[in-house]
Amino acid sequence: MSPHDGARTSIAANFRYQLDQVASHWQASSARQAGLDAAESLHQLRVALRRMRTLLTLFRPWLKRGWRHRLRSDISWISSALGAARDYDVLIGVTLPALAAAHPHLTDWPAVLGAARAGQHAAHGRLARARSRQRYARFHRRMQRCIDGASNPFRSRARSMLDRRRSRFLDRARRLLREYYRALYPAAEHATQLSADACHRLRLRVKRLRYTSEALTPLLAKAQHASFFTHLSACQDALGQRNDAAVAQRLLEDLPLDAPARAQAQQWLQRKIAQAMRAAEDALKQLPEPRMRSGKRR
């Protein structure tokens, strides 16, 4: 049963349903990892982990603290290994080809690409070792046992309310959406002037709003769906492009570039960062505050 179909549904059923949807996405992406779309699969695995983290926050009042902390710790551990591999995938598949096309005579691009592939190989090796550890298997089992109902992740004090209507859940959802949206401002109104650290914090806040609102999509006011998600998606994409360029600036320090070539490459990446931040600021200025559907509480 979907927790969004308007029927009477418990907080427990709501959580298990959404976790099952995320886990199915995780398993499908994981199964494709060895294929030609391995880089995209890595990205989808990271998205699934972010959605899991969002659910742990959204349902936090009803979850056992120890169970939630263990799962969150495992998510952070796996995300770190996935992130390093993904950084090199983007560098090799997107950034370096664009940089070489813009400056074909700047340096010996095959040598640079070869060095980057060595870094990519090492990062994917660390990811493979992480996925072979027992901790990874325990993470998978813990998540699946919750979905199947074989384990109970809910606090004993919350048990009496788990089968009630969703008024408390809806109240929490409204409050979180409002807090997450307002946390974007006023920084979002002058995003092009933010420091690197402030840009990073803004990106995390946009992702938090994005994945929380996606989890609550059927509960949002339908009239604003298109505008809200269009601008939010555009902002996240722009901030992601800014992050890819910033990561490339860091990774280039370990690649075989002479000083003049490195300086030009860094300048090119800095222009990409400025362009991305202008796009992010434009999207945020048009982003409406998310509103949940009105009507009687269920």
UniProtKB/TrEMBL annotation:
Give the matching SMART domains.
Answer: CHAD (SM00880)
A Pfam short name: CHAD
The record's InterPro entries line, in alphabetical order, gives: CHAD_dom (IPR007899), CHAD_dom_sf (IPR038186)
- Taking every annotated instance into account, which residue ranges of this chain make up the domain CHAD? 8-293
Entry-linked Gene3D superfamilies: CHAD domain
- Xref: PROSITE patterns: CHAD (PS51708)
Protein name (Swiss-Prot/TrEMBL) = CHAD domain-containing protein
